[in-house]
Design goal:
- This protein is of the alpha/beta class.
- Among the domains are: 61-103, 2-Layer Sandwich (Herpes Virus-1); 170-359, SET domain (Beta-clip-like), CATH 2.170.270.
- The chain is built from eight helices and 15 strands.
- β9 and β10 (300-303) form a beta hairpin.
- Residues 59-109 form the PHD-type domain.
């Protein structure tokens, strides 16, 4: 039997083995590389709330008024640890905030953005109706909705000109044409339903809408077709429902021989085309502006003193009387028709049978004297 070893010898043996033979242990995975820690100053600069609290806050004063009174109203910023009275800070704090609070400087002056339509809908949680049952039940309701939503100017611009409706009675139509013929004969005028260009006056090449100062409104394709349709009816002897009558005060004037709807073409103003500079001293009271050119020497007028149609006898209103404009039921409008200037008389409201026709003679830039009009 081997002699028992002493405790000191056993301890030396264990220490020797620990230095020479490492115990078998399972291999551990390589530890990840330690990250470099940031400095405390860098963390405090970027931290939202990094306040080192003080032991004593008895010396805290308001940064705005400098007073330390009303301690119950002093608010401490959770970032800069400065004090502010609830009524001194802007915007004023009505009640003590719950949770963290930042002063305006730490919070930053954020730009106030206005609510957009989408934000308003999201804010109030307004739900748009997508159910098909809530849509317009008929096409008429859809047109009404579009009409209400569209601007008034667009609605007025979209109105189309209407062709006149000739009188169905053939004998009455002959009376209308006879009244016009009698009036033309009495004034020694020739009938002309179109603009006339004579050699000693302005040529046709001078009548171009592109010469208009500021531009001229273009007659749409649909309205141009309506105007041509009226011209074709007049050539067939289907004249507008108008009759020329003689009045002791107004002279020859025109009355409606049947109902006329609003926006109906009454007639086209016709006559001889001449330069305005050649007619500055003309005593004709029925001249109509045709073209106001950039160069005044190229401005044109329509002179129905020798040739014209029923538009020659429609009277202008007296702008100097209070009730003058109340009588106005039609207007003269200058249009660009296929590059040429034309003047068209259009009804501005519904005209009843027997009502006389009046238009504003001062519809353009020049103020013509109308005090002698009835």
């Amino acid at each position: 039997m081997a002699p028992a070893s002493s405790p000191a010898a056993a301890q030396r043996l264990i220490r020797f083995r620990s230095r020479t033979q490492a115990p078998c242990r399972p291999s551990l995975p390589a530890s990840p590389r330690r990250k470099k820690y940031k400095l405390l100053s860098e963390i405090m600069e970027k931290a939202r709330f990094a306040v080192v609290e003080r032991d004593d806050y008895n010396d805290v004063t308001c940064e705005q008024c400098g007073s330390g009174e009303r301690a119950d109203e002093l608010l401490l910023c959770d970032k800069c640890d400065k004090g502010f009275h609830m009524k001194c800070v802007r915007p004023i704090v009505v009640r003590i905030p719950i949770g963290s609070w930042l002063c305006p400087k730490c919070l930053g002056e954020r730009r106030v953005r206005s609510f957009s339509q989408k934000k308003i809908i999201d804010f109030f949680r307004i739900q748009k109706c997508t159910d098909k049952k809530d849509k317009c039940s008929s096409q008429q309701d859809a047109r009404k909705r579009r009409k209400r939503s569209a601007p008034l100017v667009v609605q007025k611009r979209r109105r189309r000109l209407l062709p006149f409706i000739p009188t169905e009675d053939h004998s009455q139509r002959l009376k209308q044409m006879g009244s016009l013929a009698s009036a033309l004969t009495a004034l020694h005028l020739e009938f002309s339903d179109d603009l006339t260009y004579l050699p000693e006056m302005a040529p046709k090449s001078a009548n171009q809408a592109k010469f208009e100062d500021g531009g001229m409104q273009v007659l749409s394709k649909e309205d141009t077709e309506t105007l041509e349709h009226c011209r074709v009816m007049c050539k067939r002897g289907e004249c507008p429902p108008l009759v020329v009558v003689f009045d002791s005060c107004e002279g020859f004037t025109v009355e409606a021989d049947g109902p006329i709807k609003d926006m109906t073409i009454i007639a086209e103003y016709t006559g001889d085309v001449d330069y305005l500079k050649n007619r500055e001293h003309d005593d004709c009271d029925s001249m109509m502006t045709l073209l106001l050119a950039i160069d005044p020497s190229k401005s044109l007028v329509i002179c129905p003193d020798k040739r014209g149609n029923i538009a020659r006898f429609i009277n202008g209103i007296n702008n100097y009387t209070p009730g003058g404009r109340k009588k106005q039921n039609c207007k003269c409008v200058r249009y660009n028709v296929n590059g040429e200037c034309r003047v068209i008389l259009v009804a501005t409201r519904d005209i009843a049978k027997g009502e006389r026709l009046y238009y504003d003679y001062n519809g353009y830039e020049h103020e013509y004297p109308t005090h002698h009009f009835i």
